[in-house]
Amino acid sequence: MRITRTVAGRRRRTAVVATTGLTAAALLLTGCSDSGSDSDEASDSNGKITLTLADFGQFGYKEAGLYEKYEKLHPNIQVKATTTADEQVYYPKFLQQLNAGKGLADIQGIEVGRVKELVDTKADAFADLSKVIDANQWVNWKALQASTDEGKVIGAGTDIGPMSLCYRRDLFEQAGLPTDREEVAERVAGGWEDYLKLGEEYKKKAPKDTFYMDSASAMYNGVVSSNEEQYYSKDGKAIYKESAGVKAGWNLAAEAAEKKLSAGLAQFQDPWKAALRKGSIATIACPAWMAAQISTYAGDDFKGKWDIARTPGDTAANWGGSFLAVPANGKHVKEAGEFVKWATAPEQQAAVFKAVGVFPSNKGAYDLPDVKNATLEYFNNAPIGAIYAEEAQSIPAAVLGPKDGVIKDSISTQINNMEQRGTKPDKAWNDAVEAVDKVIG
Q1: How far apart are CA 51 and CA 61, in angstroms?
Q2: Strand ranges, E, within 254-394
Q3: How far, in Å, CA of 424 to CA of 258, rounded?
């Protein structure tokens, strides 16, 4: 599952969604999960096709019962799905198989942090899904991420990570801050600068042994992700040193570290999990998939004490998302394309959202009851369907680059050093640049 789906510091757990009250619960899966026969044969003596699918983390198809449903709709097809827990293990093997031209599944998952590299260097290795799906069904920036300049689409969008702000109502109340989600959204409406100002107010009356935010690097990701140009320009040049979004995010992160508004915890590591269990974190920059992380590690003691408000500022942001792709030399390209089209259609994306909480990238899902009416019980019944759908459709079409993940990880590491080791901003920035330049030249 996506518990260890890690690109640019991102990890995921799952949430279980209901249209009237969404409850977040961990589905702690590891290793591989299969649907269908263990046979490696492409078809049996009766002509029944075994369609293979390889993914990472948790795409939610098994949990939503999609494999079984598809097999009932297509009696001649059996789906065999293999999941690698950690995307950083999955991707190198995937690249090796692409380069060798063998060993690939009929359908392969692709993380958003990798898709630009594959579009630029391996587009010929994939079937053109523009001939199978209607890319206009997706939020426009999602389809563009997997498209070549010539219009070839190498991946159909699965989920996305529209941003919000998760916060502790009880800690806000003790600190004399508003607790209503609309009032909180209004207080940070001016952007992440307002978010830090609210943090300074929190600090003045903060409950003992609590921190305003978990990680300044998480806030940094939120800032950068709201910009069209982030680490690369449209002509493919690495511009992270000059990027307005990177500069703004870095300066805000340095300010948060200096003013000790952050606990300085690397997300998803044991100290971060412990802080959630202890209840010492008041806010977290929250892409759609983060809610399940919080509810899992914070536990039942804090159910109803968390809430979700709209992201700071008037520019939406996205953090995360994936695609399904069909290798061009697969044994069942036509059948694989048909499965991808079906699995990423609105009804199936809504079913996955209901099952595991990953938010759809297909716009048609937003008007379906399982999305439109979804609330999250753990987070004071926050109307996440409405919140994330509104954010998703106003996110700018970000320019992606082949080494986005490397750049983001290097910068995030140095933000953590400012928080944890007291590294001065100038030195931390120089260390980040040195680390990035060793990789990208």
Answers
A1: 14
A2: 281-287, 306-310, 318-325, 359-360
A3: 9
